[in-house]
Specification:
The complex is a heterodimer of chains A (207) and B (702). By secondary structure, chain A is an all-alpha fold. Chain A has six helices and no strands. Chain A has a single domain, classed as Cytochrome c oxidase, subunit III, four-helix bundle (Four Helix Bundle (Hemerythrin (Met), subunit A), Up-down Bundle), CATH 1.20.120.80. The N and C termini of chain A lie far apart (46 Å). Chain B folds into two domains: 61 residues, no CATH class; 578 residues, Up-down Bundle (Cytochrome C Oxidase, Chain A), CATH 1.20.210. Chain B has 21 helices and two strands. Chain B has a two-stranded antiparallel sheet. The chains are: A mainly alpha (207), B mainly alpha (702).
Amino acid sequence: MSHEVMHHPGINLGPAHGEANEIAKTMLFGFWAFLMSDAILFGMVFASYVTSVHATAGGPGPKDLYNIRSAFIETLLLLASSFTFGMASLALKYKHSKTRLVQWLLVTLLLGMAFLGFEVHDFLTMIAKGGTPERSGFISAFFDLVPLHGLHVTGGCIWLICLIGQMARYGIDTQVKLGVLRLALFWHFLDIVWIAIFTIVYLGGLA
Amino acid sequence: MSTAPFSPPLLGRLGWDSLPFYHMLQDPTRENLVNGCIAGGAALIVVFGTIIVFALITKYRKWGILWQWMTSPDHKKIGIMYVVIALVMLARALIEAWLMRLQQAFGLGGGFLSANHFAQLFSTHGTIMIFFMVMPFLIGLINCVMPQQIGARDVSFPVLNSISLGLTAAGAALVMVSLVLGHFSTGGWFGYPPYTEASFSPGVGPDYWIWALVLSGLGSTFTGINFAVTIYKERAPGMKLMHMPLFTWTSLCTAIMMIFAMPPLTVAMGQLGLDRYLGFHFFTNTLGGNMMHFANLFWLFGHPEVYILILPAFGVFSEVFATFSGKALFGYKSLVMATMCIAILSFTVWLHHYFTMGQGADINAVFGIASMLIGIPTGVKIYDWMWTMFRGRVRFTTPMIYSIAFIFLFVLGGMSGILLANPSIDYQVHNTVFLVAHFHNVAVPGVLFGMLAGYTFWFPKAFGFRLNERWGKLSAWCWIFGFMLAFFPLYALGIMGLPRRSAGYTQSSYVPLEAVAFVGACLVVAALAALVIQIWVSIRDRDQNRVPAGDPWDGRSLEWANAAPAPEYNFAVIPTVSGRDSFTTAKENGTAYRKPDKYLDIKVPRNSVMGPAAGAIGFFLAFGLVWHIWWLVIAGFIAAVAAMIGRGFARDTTRTIPAAQVRWEYERWLDVVAAAHAISRADENKPVNQGLAAQPPVGAAP
């Protein structure tokens, strides 16, 4: 491997992509700054959760509400989706066929939606057991943190569909490339946040 | 409070009783009449003001130009629009301040305003001054100046810049609408729960406050990202970080702090919103809620916010002292270090906002010491500025008057801050007007004087003509003495025990000092009037005060090296930088105003509807949430998602300015420079100043 100049952390498109690679210098740096801000947002919500975990007010606690099997399946789905997104990024970088890129993106989308499906099922089960946010500070904090991540994943899925739409309309042009690069960062970032959720909320709550 | 009989369908909580004079008509007691007339009068000013502005725009057929401005991604235009918002909001919040001083001057035994009305006044005053006066003012100044100081064509994300403006404008509009429909929060600018929870404040007030702050907070987050990326990535070739003008340095620190400090505010507002709308228990009294979480989150934002506000002002003062002393800034490196230290320390002191709220003495001591530490880098800065003036040829222009007054008064405010940083003293004076005196003593001479100095300093850069000096100086002196008369008595009153936010009191010994403070408030209103007259006179006489050559003050940094006003692409050819004060160096070497070897085509972003769209969608979404008009909320949400998706499908978002046009514009400007008469600093404020500075002969004494 020759020494490629890194314009930003993460997968760089490389000089073969010309304009897109140049714009990525600034745009991806900006997106990293945004993720930093978003990380603070999650950090604050994590802090709320950790300081509220005992505020059950006599209502159901983690052991009554969480389902570790479901959370584990969700973790696997999300980790797998991060891998498939990585494959999509490589397909983009090395200019594999458009079909290959779209296939990897679609697999990612399916995994993301499966994750959301399991998550919504979890929430409904919790609510059925009386674990509604009106019940206690603890459940309020849970429903601030975990659905916030879920909303981010939902946003990511919508973004992914839009990118595929843009590809259908314009082909793999500069904007689409920059979009895939940013969504990839976003997706991996959400993976990391989920690992924190799985560790702190689920494993920590059931330990 | 039942609104059902008056509520038309589909309008949620909105009904006839939302109008400000409704209560007065239903129950015409004397107190209700006084409060209703004041609130109704304010509402009429908003309504008629809007109608008059619309009528004038229509009469002079300016809708087209206005739309060009609103959709423009040009950082200079966006900056000007931010400052306009700031000045309009300044006028409102200042009149509210005057009204509060009037109330307290006659406050012995109760005053003329109801406690509820008074509480709305101090809540809107604080909210506006922080979020819709100083924030837009400093973001506007940075927008106008910073990209030109670093030799850039624009910020990194011009359309995002326009979206930030739209969101801020939407938040400001929401606060203005609260004058006409419903009422504002009575919980103060930091709106502590559980008082602001639905159980104690069921009305629309806290909702207006929450959504105005969410809109402005989102706008500021994006602005912070935009400015930081611009400074890191768009500097002219050769400009190292340690070559940047100090205003750019303070802009960078402020931008980084916005990225880190805004999310806690968003979380606090979001959680309070969940409590109020969906019955969550973050900050409630019952079922495991804990209001201390709010205090922590809010001040984790709130204390860095104080330095987000002051650092750009420090940047302005640094430029002003150097320029009007005709010297390079003293201690540049120490000023940069001090700025960074302040930015970092500002994240370690938030707890000093609630020393009395129950944590142990050890924790208080740690945060007290951290708070006092901030005095050290700030002290370094004060000395640097004084040494900058030392043996300089100081010119007492309007910005300089603000800056020198700042040094005297800000040091006093800092001293009272050191007192308050001591938890045992804080226990004695907390929640009194001593605190009010302290933070106004840093906010007015520090932040506001800095903003006004910057406004006067860079006005000719933005508009191509100088502001009237006589009215400017009169305004500055009115601000200075008005501030001192209005706030120094509050130190004494605080020690005498007057609680902050008191609508009335029973101690007759407070009356004389309150009267003095009221006189000061009147003087401050006179200062505002002088500012309005200044702009009027300056526009009237603009043709005698034009500075087309672009350098009216013998400036030192790159923003003075092109035309005033600058073309939309700023620089015909991006300059190359080799050190600090690069424009001064160029003037001394005779390399300024050179023709380049060749010109290139320049790509600029096309106008985009995203900014006004984000503003309109944000406003209606928030308005629907405030009044529980759910169809509007759903429509607004769908529109927001659709706008984002639509923008993703936009292509061809730039246009090209051909090299021939760039050449023509640039060389026409060089002709203007060649024809201009180079003036000495003695003629700076005379019509002969066309923006070309005479250079002293080589070897002359400074």
